[in-house]
C-alpha cells in the first residue's frame, strides 16, 4: 500500500465527518469525498507539505463539496419548475428525548457564522490546530484566531443565557 493510500485510509472517518459537516447532506458528502479521493490518487491535487496533509486533504474535501453544490444549484436552476414552488410547512421538531445539553450546544452552534462553525468543527472535532484549520479554510491564521475567539465568546454567551433561563424557570 502506498503512503498516500495509507494516509487517506487513516483519515477516512474524520474526512467523512468533515464532508458531512460541509455538505449537510449524506449523498453530497459521499460524492465530494469520492471526488477528493480521485483528485488525490490521480495527482490532480497534491500536498507539498507532508506534515500538513490532514489540513490539505480537508481543504480538498471542502472545495469538492463547494464545486458539487454549485453544480447542483445550477442544474436545479436550469430545471426549475416555477409552478411547483410552494411553501411547505416545516417538519415538526423531533421529540427523541436527546440530552438537553447536546441540544443546547447544537442550538448555540447555529448562532455562529459559517466560518466560525467550520473553525469550531475543525479544532474541536477534528483536532486540527488553528493554523491547520486556517490552511484548510484558505484563510489567514490571524483571521482564524479572530473568528475562533469570537465563536467561543458567542457560544459562552449563548449557553450562559440558556442556563440562566433554565435556572429562572425550573419547569422548562
Automatic annotation (TrEMBL):
GO terms for biological process: DNA-templated transcription initiation. One of its GO terms (molecular function) is DNA binding. The keyword Transcription applies. The keyword Chloroplast does not apply. Transmembrane segments: none annotated. Residues 104-155 form the RNA polymerase sigma factor 70 region 4 type domain. Belongs to the sigma-70 factor family. ECF subfamily. This is RNA polymerase sigma factor.
Amino acid at each position: 500500500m502506498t503512503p498516500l493510500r495509507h494516509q487517506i485510509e487513516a483519515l477516512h472517518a474524520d474526512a467523512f465527518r468533515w464532508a458531512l459537516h460541509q455538505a449537510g447532506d449524506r449523498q453530497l458528502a459521499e460524492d465530494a469525498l469520492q471526488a477528493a479521493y480521485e483528485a488525490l490518487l490521480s495527482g490532480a491535487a497534491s500536498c507539498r507539505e507532508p506534515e500538513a496533509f490532514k489540513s490539505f486533504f480537508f481543504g480538498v474535501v471542502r472545495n469538492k463539496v463547494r464545486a458539487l453544490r454549485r453544480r447542483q444549484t445550477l442544474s436545479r436552476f436550469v430545471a426549475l419548475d416555477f409552478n411547483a414552488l410552494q411553501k411547505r410547512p416545516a417538519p415538526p421538531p423531533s421529540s427523541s428525548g436527546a440530552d438537553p445539553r447536546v441540544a443546547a450546544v447544537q442550538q448555540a452552534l447555529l448562532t455562529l457564522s459559517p466560518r466560525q462553525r467550520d473553525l469550531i468543527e475543525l479544532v474541536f472535532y477534528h483536532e486540527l490546530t488553528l493554523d491547520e484549520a486556517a490552511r484548510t479554510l484558505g484563510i489567514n491564521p490571524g483571521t482564524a484566531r479572530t473568528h475562533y475567539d469570537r465563536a467561543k465568546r458567542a457560544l459562552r454567551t449563548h449557553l450562559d443565557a440558556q442556563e440562566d433561563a433554565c435556572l429562572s424557570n425550573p419547569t422548562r
